[in-house]
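Thanks for the sequence, V.! I ran PGG domain-containing protein right away. Repeating your input here for the record:
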Amino acid sequence: MSKYDYVISDLPIYKAALNDDWDSVSELFKKDPSLMTKQITYWWETPLHIAVGTDRSHCFVKKLVESIVAVGPKDEQNSDMTRVPNPYGNTPLKLAAWHGNKETLIYLLKVTRDLLPDEEGVSPYSGVAGGDLITLTIMAGFYDVALDIINMHPNIVLEYDRNNQSALQILAQKPEVFPSGSKLGFWGRLIYSLIHVKKSEGTTEAKLNILFRIFNKWNWNLPLWQPPTGSHNTDLPSHHRPLPAPPPSAAFIAGFWSLVGYVAPSIKKIHDIKINHNTSQLLAERICKIVLETGRHDITWNILGPSIATAVNYGIHEIIEECIVTYPGLIWYNVGGFYLFLAAIRQRQERVYNLVYQMSRHKIFAAVELHDGDNALHIAGKLAPPHRLNVVTGAALQMQRELQWFKEVEKFIEPSYKEALNNDETPRTPRMVFTDEHKDLLKEGQQWMKDTASSCTVVAALLVTMAFAGAFTLPGGNQDDGKPIFLTFNTFMLFIVSDAVALFSSSTSVLMFLGILTSRYAEDDFLYALPKRLTIGLLSLFMSIAATMIAFSSALALVLRGKVTWVAAPLVIATSIPVCLFGLLQFPLLVELVKSTYGRSIFHQQNPRMIH
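Predicted structure:
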C-alpha cells in the first residue's frame, strides 16, 4: 500500500473536474459527500481547485458549490469551501483570477463572503490573499471585475500581494489599457473618437447582472448579484447590498455591440478598447481616492509613489497625473535616483514630460540639480535607453529625436544652466555631454543617410535619362515639317506632360540626394536639414516613377491604338505595379519623416487640467 493510492482511486473525480463533467460524478458525491472537499492530487488539491484552474469547467464549479452548501458543513472548513486555500495558499478565487477564468471568478465572488467582525480565519479580501486577488484580477485584464471588487471591499487597494506590489502598481504596468498606450492607426483613431462610451459603461453593477443573464442562457440559472449566502449579518454595509437590476437600455446596448461584433469585429474591438480605457481610468481614480481617504502620509506615499515610478517607465501619464492631482507632494518622489520629470527625461517618456505644461512652475523642475552636478539638460544630453531609442526608424531619425529632446529641455532651462559644468572627472557642459554620448549614433546616422541617398540617386539618375530620351523619341515619329504625328491626340498630350513631370521630379530627386551625400553631417543637420532633403527626394522620386509609368502607358496606347487591346490592357495595368511597390516599401519611412519633421511636436500640453 502506498500513501498516494488515493490519487488513482480518485482519478475519475479529477477527470470530471478537468472536463466539466458533473454528471459522471454526481451520484458518487451523493453517496459520499466528503469526496467533494477531499484532496485528490499529489499537490493536495480539492475538486474545486481543479475545476477553477480550467477555463471550461464553469458548470462543474457551480454544481459543486451548490452541492457543498446543500449538504451542509461537516466541519469548519467545509462551511466556506471557496475561502479555503490549498497547501500553497491559493484559494479558488485566486486560482480563477490567476488562470484568467472570468466567468468562474465572477461566480465565486458572488458566493464567497467576507469574514464577519467577530469571526476567526483569513479573509480572502484582505492581507496577502486580498492583495493577490486584486493584482491577479488586474493582470488578467478583468478591469471591470477589479473595479467591482474594490467597490465592495475598498481596503483591498491598500494590500500588497506576495511580490509586495499593490493594485495600482500592477495597473501601472499595463500601458495598453490607457489612451497613451494605444497603437491605433489613423482610421482606428477616427472610429475611436466617434464611438461614445459612458464613463461608467462596462463597470457598473448592471454589467454584472447582464453577465449573469447571459450565463443563464447557458443553463447556469444564476440569480442576480446578491449578498453572499450564509451571512449571519442582516444589516449589511452598502457595498454588500443587492445590486440594482440593469435598465432595459443597458441590455439593448449590450445586444447592439454583440451584433456589431459579428458584423464588424474591428469596430467592436475598438469599442472594447475604449471601454477598457475608461474602466482603467476609473480604476486609477478610485484607488487614489481610497488611498487619500486613509489620511495617512506613509500609506499614500508608499502606495502611490512606487506606482508613479512604474508608470514613468511605461509612459502612462494618466496614472501619474491622477496621483499628483490626488497628492501634489508626489512630484518630488524619487524615481530611480531622479525626480519625476528628470526621470521622464532620462527615460525619454514624452507623455510624462508633457505634464510640465500643466504646471505653474515647470521651470523649477527643469533646473533641479542632482547630487553629481547634472541638471536637466545634462540628462537630456545622455543617450536614450535602447528600447526608447528604437521607437523611430533608422539612426538618422533617432538622432533627430534626440536633438528634439535636447532642444525642448533647453527651452525651459535657466540660461545659467546651459553652460553649467557637471561633477564628472572631466567636467562637461550639457552640449559636451550630448556630443560625447551621441558620437556613435551620429556615425550610424551619417552612414544610414549616405546609403539611402546613394541607392535612390541611382534610380533617380536612370529616370532622368529615360525621361530626357523620351522627349526626343516620340511615339509614332514626326511629320516632314517636324510636327509629331499624334499631336492632335489627347493621349499624346498626356504622354508629353507625364514625361515632363518625370524629368523635372527625377532631376529634383537627384539634386536632393546629392545634397545629402555632400552634407557636412553636423549634429544640428539631423534636426531639420537632412530630413527635409530626404523627404523632398523621396517624394519627387515617387512622382517620377509614377509619371514615367503614365508616360509608358500613354505611348503604348498610342502605338497600338485599340488594335490589340487584349495585350495593351494588361500591360497598362501592370505599369501600376512598380508605383504600388515603391509606395508599400517606402511610404512608411516617408510618413515617419514627414510626421517627425513637419508634424505636430511630441511636446505639447495634453489637456488643460492643472496638476501643480
